[in-house]
Amino acid sequence: MNRKIIPIALSAALTLALPVPMLLAHGDAVPQAVDTTGLPDLPEEMAKENPWRAASGDLLFRAVEVGAKGFNSNCARCHGLEAISGGLAPDLRFLEANDFGDEWYLDRVLHGYEQNGAVKMPPFADIFSQQAVWAIRTYIETRPDADEMAAKTDEIHSLLDKVKALESGADVTTAGAVADELDAVNDQFEALSGAPRAVTVLAQAAHILRADPARAAVAAELIAGSLRD
């Protein structure tokens, strides 16, 4: 895959050089605290690298869920829904999932960014807990290529039908088999950041089904929502 890697140097590609028109905005313009319930505590001192990069299971999916909410409330206004930038702000999906990328990310999140005396990004050091900082990072770095996802729309619709078929009731074995299919398709996508794994709605739906087949309707709506978008 050709991967557009963001340089870590403070270059034009990584500066918010232009104001974002309000008509293109998403989310709240006022920084919002993030509810991190369900995430484990982290040491008081801020980590230098994403502590959840190698996470799996409940921790990974909870971090992605919390991070998605935090991103949509605070970051999507400039960086785009699903972290897909419209071009006026950096496309954070391509920020490398390594210590260099983490360093750049932390600097911007904690200290904000100004250009020619104008605040292009406010600092979040006094607003985000460490759990929120790294949950948002985890969400961003697990984003897949949206175009590759779109190319598999028919296959995703077929999987959605299988998940919906579980809504009337399914045993663990049947739900697990559908979850395996969801994971198999999810694993065809790479994270644009180079992170160990992309986490799409398919992986999230699979996790839901394995945890509780009775929540098949929730898993189905998650997939359906991505297709509507």
From TrEMBL:
This is Cytochrome c-550 PedF. PROSITE patterns: CYTC. Residues 1-25 form the signal peptide. Keywords: Heme, Iron, Metal-binding, Signal. Residues 62-144 form the Cytochrome c domain. InterPro entries: c550_proteobact, Cyt_c-like_dom, Cyt_c-like_dom_sf. It comes from the Bacteria. The gene is pedF. NCBIfam families: c550_PedF. It holds the Pfam family Cytochrome_CBB3.
